[in-house]
């Protein structure tokens, strides 16, 4: 029953999460195109774009000077030499500086995966609550019971079992003798040892 309880806990947590995300997006984000966290990142990039100097090279291709570095921005291909735009899908400061030059709204260049509409699609599924176990259909399978707990004698071990490679005693590696054939030190035969104890 521990596994069943865990699965039910995960199931209802998912159900509550989907409902809360739907309600949050519908009630708080109305009238917005992109999600609030992405909007904050975009605003930071807009502040950074104020320190960039833009020079137009050709149609929708620009050279952007930012401090001691220069970058090439292609608005038609959604690329910038700093690669932030390609990796994140959010226009970088160099791209936004070019958008200001061309009078383009930077929000229109944000990838569609960050829009509120896509967010609602991701959480648009409905998780139907489970029926009571009494209502479940009976199956002709074996009944699964939890394992029988048997308390071991002695104090429980806290340290894990080490492999032979880890057993080091006073700087020397100690190997396990399990599986090694022990011979008698007197006659050399393997069926007994020097104390006369036979192994069958």
TrEMBL record:
It comes from Triticum urartu (Red wild einkorn). Keywords: Metal-binding, Zinc, Zinc-finger. The lineage of its organism: Eukaryota, Viridiplantae, Streptophyta, Embryophyta, Tracheophyta. This is SWIM-type domain-containing protein. It comes from the Eukaryota. GO terms for molecular function: zinc ion binding. SMART domains: ZnF_PMZ. It holds the Pfam family SWIM. Residues 71-103 form the SWIM-type domain.
């Amino acid at each position: 029953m521990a596994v069943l309880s865990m699965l039910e806990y995960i199931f209802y947590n998912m159900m509550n999460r989907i409902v809360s995300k739907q309600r949050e997006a519908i009630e708080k984000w109305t009238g917005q195109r992109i999600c609030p966290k992405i909007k904050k990142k975009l605003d930071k990039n807009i502040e950074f774009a104020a320190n960039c100097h833009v020079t137009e090279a050709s149609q929708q291709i620009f050279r952007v000077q930012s401090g001691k570095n220069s970058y090439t921005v292609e608005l038609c291909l959604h690329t910038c030499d700093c690669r932030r735009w390609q990796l994140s899908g959010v226009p970088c400061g160099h791209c936004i500086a070019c958008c200001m030059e061309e009078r383009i709204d930077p929000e229109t260049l944000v990838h569609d995966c960050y829009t509120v509409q896509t967010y609602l699609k991701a959480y648009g599924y409905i998780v139907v609550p489970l029926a009571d176990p009494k209502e479940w259909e009976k199956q002709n399978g074996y009944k699964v019971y939890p394992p029988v707990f048997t308390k071991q004698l002695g104090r429980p071990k806290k340290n894990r079992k080490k492999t032979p490679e880890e057993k080091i005693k006073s700087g020397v590696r100690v190997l396990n003798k399990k599986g090694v054939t022990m011979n008698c030190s007197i006659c050399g035969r393997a069926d007994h040892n020097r104390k006369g104890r036979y192994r069958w």
